[in-house]
Design a protein that fits this description.
alpha/beta, globular, 2 domains, about 425 residues, single chain, Aspartate Aminotransferase, domain 2, EC 2.6.1.44, PyrdxlP-dep_Trfase_small, aminotransferase, seven-stranded mixed beta sheet, Aspartate Aminotransferase, domain 1
Length: about 425
Amino acid sequence: MTHAELWERHKAVMPDWLALYYEEPIEIVKGSGRRVTDGEGNSYLDFFAGILTNAIGYDVAEISEAVREQLSSGIAHTSTVYLIRKQIELAEQIAKLSGIENAKVFFANSGTEANEAALLLATQNRRSNQVLAMRNSYHGRAFGTVAITGNRGWSASSLSPVNVQYVQGAYRYRSPFRDLPDADYIKVCVDDLRNVIETTTSGDVACLIAEPIQGVGGFASPPDGLYGAFKQVLDEYGILFISDEVQTGWGRTGDHFWGIQAHDVVPDAMTFAKGLGNGFAIGGLVARPDLMDSLSANSLSTFGGNPISTSAAKATIDYLLDNDLQANAAKRGAQLADGLRGIAEEFPELGDVRGKGLMLATEIIKPGDNSPDAASTAKLQQEAKNRGLLIGKGGLYGNVLRMAPPMTLTEEETTEALEILRDSFNTLR
């Protein structure tokens, strides 16, 4: 069956709002290392990794063996009404890695579920439905997480279970304060945070939730220290701080294991998902014990933290740590960032290079007025695919190319990708 035939079947039974990449969508059927093969036999270097999910890559023996061992027991599922050994072992490891004192962990199935759980805990703990979020943010596709998403392209409903106010600072490239030095930029954003609290809320706000680097928002990156400065203001009002680490966790940013560590602050809670399972569905929340235990009703997760997913996740973290993939993300990220900046010197359409480690993006603009150029962005993504490189897309205006390859990326593969990207930019001439 061709991709075109499969696409017709997809359109007949799947919702129209389920977005697909490329003029002619592809099916990925095989993978090894950092490379995948589609249903028509074409091979690609994968620089988006299932939206930052295949953190280690494809066909990793240690992870496959951990899953096979669990399957061989005959137990794929029991639910959280029973003890699950791998879940406990994984929770112990994440609690220790979190830096949160005496942390507790709850497992779900996705980043959306993790952020929903965080909202539930924060609003219950503070007895308030008021929430602060960042402009240009994205936290998931469910009712509560759509409500705290500050990006019109992903905000499907104005209805909301929470009262949300949005704060400046995360997306610097198009900020009115973009030309300020870092310290001054942080100061005006802190002043804005305080003003939002004092003028648009009743004061008893439940939490601020923020991505250290905005994922769907185009890997928008504030200066280091912004959220540390925010936390000082939040503490004055007793407002909880939740770091959404769904895309930034597990060493991907290179310099730190958690993205929020660049801001020299320990949050009250962190949410996680994506790369933890290297493709297996898992998400969760790690938090202060008083916050985690603040629910006054029973709860559970039927599939969250199941034996298969936690076995895969435990093997993934062990592999990440044993092979120091955080250091590799820093090295390969620096190589990739330098190469992208070199391309930017040749092509004025590349307006901004941003991100950290192996979480990098380029904002594509119309030279002269810096306006977003979504059409050229889509063309570049397609041209890269035609040359054997898969990259992501995002941003508030759909004009950002996102690159987040598996953290096992090699120097040679990075060079190969940069050559393809340069060739793709040449097609704009």
